[in-house]
Amino acid sequence: MSDLSDYSSTKAGDSELQDFLMVEKQKAQFHAQIHEFNDFCWDKCVDKPGSKLDSRTETCISNCVERFIDVSLLVTNRFAQMLEKGGGMH
């Protein structure tokens, strides 16, 4: 009988591993999106680096940060909704 309990604990471990890997993959995708966003804002807002930001560049960067926060909250809320619909992660 111990063979059967070993099998079920292995299956539970596999499920936990799959859940962990899915979360890590989502984190990696999110971080990749952050890097893309940073590159986009830099290219959009900074014409040429200098010792001081002009008001246009500062406003542009500020707006980019605000949009980034909006998107981060949207993504976080969407993940939370997915977890609620899926019964949560075990």
TrEMBL record:
Q: Which UniProt keywords apply?
A: Chaperone, Disulfide bond, Membrane, Mitochondrion, Mitochondrion inner membrane, Protein transport, Translocation, Transport
Q: Where in the cell is it found?
A: Mitochondrion inner membrane
Classification via InterPro entries: Tim10-like, Tim10-like_dom_sf
Gene source species = Papilio machaon
Query: Know anything about its domains from the record?
Result: The twin CX3C motif contains 4 conserved Cys residues that form 2 disulfide bonds in the mitochondrial intermembrane space.
Annotated ranges, domain Tim10-like: 20-81
Provide the protein name. Answer: Mitochondrial import inner membrane translocase subunit
Q: What does this protein do?
A: Mitochondrial intermembrane chaperone that participates in the import and insertion of some multi-pass transmembrane proteins into the mitochondrial inner membrane. Also required for the transfer of beta-barrel precursors from the TOM complex to the sorting and assembly machinery (SAM complex) of the outer membrane. Acts as a chaperone-like protein that protects the hydrophobic precursors from aggregation and guide them through the mitochondrial intermembrane space.
Which family, according to UniProt?
A: Belongs to the small Tim family.
Q: What is the protein's quaternary organization? A: Heterohexamer.
What biological process terms from GO does the record include? Answer: protein transport
Coiled-coil segments: none
This protein's GO CC annotations: mitochondrial inner membrane
Q: Kindly list the residue ranges recorded as spanning the membrane.
A: none
What is this entry's stated membrane topology? Answer: Peripheral membrane protein
